[in-house]
Amino acid sequence: MKYAYLILLLLFPFGILFAQVNDEPDYPAPDSLETELDEQEIIDLNSGKAVVDESSVMEMLDLVSSISYFKDIYLDIDTAVLNIYDYGRDEIPVFDDTVYQNRIEALARETTIPLTFNTHVKSFIELYANRKRQQSSRMLGLSYVYFPMFEEYLAKYNLPLELKYLAMVESALNPTAGSRVGAKGLWQFMLATGKDYGLRVTTLLDERYDPMKETIAACEYLQSLYARYEDWFLVLAAYNSGPGTVNKAILRSGGVRNYWAIWPYLPRETRGYVPAFIAVTYLMNYATEHNIYPVNPGLLLHGTDTVMVHQRIGFDQVNEVVGVPMEDLIFFNPQYTKQIVPASSDMPCALRMPMKYTLRFAQLEDSIYRYTSRAEQAREVIEKKVQAVSDSFTHTVKKGESLASIAKKYHVSVSNIKNWNRMKSNTIHAGQKLTIYRSGAPMAQVSKSNKSTKSGSKSSQSGSTVK
Fold it and tell me: Is the pLDDT of residue 73 over 50?
């Protein structure tokens, strides 16, 4: 077996396709690529690590480390029980390539996606299983939250269930993930593509962050791409870089509709996309063999339920009236980007929360709508103060006017005018600027002078005519 393996390596100069399940075409020879790729890109054809380092997978794995939601609540994970191979706590198992090959071949027999093994796939396996194994444990924990929903909709759209692992490549199952180029959510939809598939984006709402709605959109998009290409690897490449990019790569490769044939002509990011998908599919099925176990995500999605909201409310109102923890509301409803549910009677919105709070929400729904949160109360106080200041205007004194006539004109008192303008007497002159507050300006009275009030008490009756 060892010698057969060496012979196979010699047959493929780049050592990339030595174990493909479906006998994929070889890469073009280096000479044929000289006009298409620079020297570094040709080197990358044979460097699995280079493809990994160019991939956004690294960025998404780092982002999943920042999710602070993981805590011990519902999912009971006993690592000692799961560790059936009796590995040491920090032991990182090492396997021969033939083991990877055999395991991936076994997975390929269970799906219509032509899973293969090559040096790029191996590099991503090493990324997930070695370099980023802690993040892989978190993804494995989050799979308990999202995979039941993914599988439900993938089955509904008659798509391979293994496509659930695509979300791991896209976002590392971080529901609030955002890429450098503007893709959002678990399935990383760009704004235009999201709108094409019915995902609304406004100031308060971004449905690309809605796990269920974006999953439905992803299923529809994948279904549409498969109808075009009838090849799952080309579908994945198009999902990542767009159909136009894949079509261009097909033309540059001579019209061959095969992912491995067009691989050299794809963007760097997309070259690592399918290998990453295969690698994460492998690892999620053989995590225990790699001494990797799920980190408790804290709360399973099927431990939650949705309530329908019929008026605009803030998360803080639900938190203070019903008692739903803010971190739960934020984690399970990332689509409400400002923590405000923009609901109305004509367009109600769904709000997800732990199931134990849903009945209380229904009982107190009207109270929630009427309730002014502590934060909102503070905002109202500030707004009133700001309004009082912004409610002022300047009156220019005309010849013949007195403080009494001006006060009568604006329905205020002479003493107020004197306080607002820090005047000690009733004497005014034509052209003088006086600040007047329409609302009576309670804020302005904070700075009133007792002396000016006293001195103006007698003369406020008649005022003083301008000379």
Answer: no
